[in-house]
């Protein structure tokens, strides 16, 4: 009986998710198909789902699709990998040691509110190639969610756990690897998942710099030639890739933290 209730609950959850997507599509069709004009908000130039589906089908059969995907995936994952290494390392140091926090947090907090688009001119000046500039933009987008979640994860560890480990003879390295790192791991994984989504968010900004390939470039180029259906296709592709990669990061993190899943179940 218990298994039946669980299956019923999962069926209801997926039913609600599909219903919400269906409601969004119906609202989109009503607004775009009817060319609704609400004054401050107008859908007169927004393509309906049918036109977007045709544009998506054309892109799917285009020989340029693979080049766009490879370029965007390479830029996003390169920037994300660099941000993960830097964000986790700095976050662990800042959250664990006061001197690191005093030294690094003031400049980082000053840089954090700067939007990705504001980095474009400086990125062009700093890096000799446009490819490195685009990777840097995705790096800046992913860095701060990873960094701040790591700092939060370290700071929320119960000091009594650290004291207990030391009283049992654990040295600094043992305390760090056996207490601090596992304790902060859930927050680190959350930061990685958010950072991956933010990296995709910055992709259009990054690929505005230059280049011939990339989903963000494809979306921006479609806007410049007023191909509205292709704009929506590019947005949906970025959304799908961002959601999928964020879920992948979260699932990998959960697989590496079996103790955390056991705590949630209990």
UniProtKB/TrEMBL annotation:
It is found in: Cell membrane. Signal peptide: none annotated. It is a multi-pass membrane protein. Keywords: Cell membrane, Membrane, Transmembrane, Transmembrane helix, Transport. This is ABC transporter permease subunit. Its main location: membrane. GO terms for biological process: alkanesulfonate transmembrane transport. GO terms for cellular component: plasma membrane. The lineage of its organism: Bacteria, Pseudomonadati, Pseudomonadota, Betaproteobacteria, Burkholderiales. The keyword Cell membrane applies. Pfam families: BPD_transp_1. InterPro entries: MetI-like (IPR000515), MetI-like_sf (IPR035906). The chain crosses the membrane at residues 12-32, 76-98, 110-127, 172-192, 199-219, 231-249. Residues 69-249 form the ABC transmembrane type-1 domain. It comes from Rugamonas aquatica. It comes from the Bacteria. Belongs to the binding-protein-dependent transport system permease family.
